[in-house]
From TrEMBL:
UniProt keyword annotation of Amino-acid biosynthesis present: no
Family statement: Belongs to the ABC transporter superfamily.
Residue ranges of the TM segments: none
Chain ranges of the ABC transporter domain: 33-263
Molecular function terms from GO: ATP binding; ATP hydrolysis activity; branched-chain amino acid transmembrane transporter activity
One example of a Gene Ontology biological process annotation: L-amino acid transport
Protein name per the record: ABC transporter ATP-binding protein
UniProt xrefs under InterPro entries: AAA+_ATPase (IPR003593), ABC_transporter-like_ATP-bd (IPR003439), ABC_transporter-like_CS (IPR017871), BCAA_Transport_ATP-bd_LivF (IPR052156), P-loop_NTPase (IPR027417)
A matching Pfam family: ABC_tran
Length: 263
């Protein structure tokens, strides 16, 4: 029996060989990223209730669902933040077991979470915000390359980061993630609070990031915009996965969108 069939048979039993990345349905190869049966709590509150999905290298996955469905919590669990606490499950990125790591180790292994509030550091210029991200290895993009992708940031490199417009702050937050060696980019509501014209600008930037083959999870209330960017979609409801398929399937299925996304 090959390792492959062994793993696949294990999976049908609801598990897989310990210490080996799980082999999921799509093509039988270990996924570049996989979240496997994640359960996570804030204190006593059971929020992430058995979430599983995988992503191929270079794919963009839209993680969608109503307010309170558990999207942010799932991203935080993947980035190995202290809360919510992961009590069960496995998270693999490029053959590395993130579930065994703390947040700083996950970051060192290529996970970058861009939170909703963007977390621009007060008192620092745009350039200093980017340089700070580059202090610790592994290093990602150079300042030159970042300013090429985000010319607006180049124009404003000496401006204090917190005085940027909302759209520019979002660009800075994404640029800061890319300043490190990122394997998995987790974006929590990158279009939040932005005017449609700015959303279009961020969308174009994310299209460029996609062309570069960055594996990405995008959480968005603006589901239609996220679905146009994404290859695949996972819908959460009350902390569980209720849909896993292509982005196009969600765009084509009005009933599904009404039921879980209210769009
Ligand atoms: N720090 C926390 N302590 C306790 N409960 C929390 C905490 N953060 C979130 N929750 C709860 O977890 C559930 C999921 O929240 P989460 O932020 O993951 O949802 P979401 O899908 O990102 O929603 P939204 O679209 O509104 O951002 C909610 O019921 C929320 O109240
Ligand atoms: Mg959220």
């Amino acid at each position: 029996m090959t390792t492959d069939t062994l793993l696949r048979e294990d999976l049908y039993e609801g598990g897989h060989a310990p210490g080996v990345a799980p082999v999921r349905g799509r093509g039988g190869a270990p996924a570049y990223f996989s979240a496997w049966d994640l359960h996570a709590y804030y204190g006593e509150s059971y929020i992430v209730q058995g979430v599983s999905f995988d992503i191929r290298e270079g794919e963009i996955l839209a993680l969608l669902g109503r307010n309170g469905a558990g999207k942010t919590s799932t991203l935080r669990a993947i980035a190995r933040m202290d809360a919510p606490g992961l009590t069960h499950g496995e998270i693999w990125l490029d053959h590395k077991p993130l579930h065994e790591m703390k947040a700083h180790q996950a970051a060192r292994n290529g996970v970058a979470l861009v939170p909703e509030d963007r977390c621009i550091i007060p008192g620092l210029t745009v350039q200093q915000n980017l340089q700070l991200a580059q202090i610790a290895p592994p290093h990602g993009w150079s300042l030159e390359r970042l300013y090429e992708l985000f010319p607006r940031l180049g124009e404003r490199k000496n401006q204090e980061g917190t005085t940027l417009s909302g759209g520019e702050q979002q660009m800075l937050a994404i640029a800061r993630a890319l300043a490190r060696d990122v394997k998995l980019l987790l974006l929590d509501e990158p279009y939040e609070g932005l005017a449609p014209v700015i959303v279009q600008e961020i969308e174009r930037t994310l299209e460029s990031v996609k062309q570069l083959g960055m594996t990405t999870v995008i959480v968005e209330q603006n589901a239609i915009a996220a679905l146009h960017l994404a290859d695949r979609a996972v819908i959460l409801d009350m902390g569980e996965v209720v849909f896993d398929g292509t982005a196009q399937e969600v765009l084509d299925n009005a009933d599904l969108r009404h039921e879980y996304l209210a769009v």
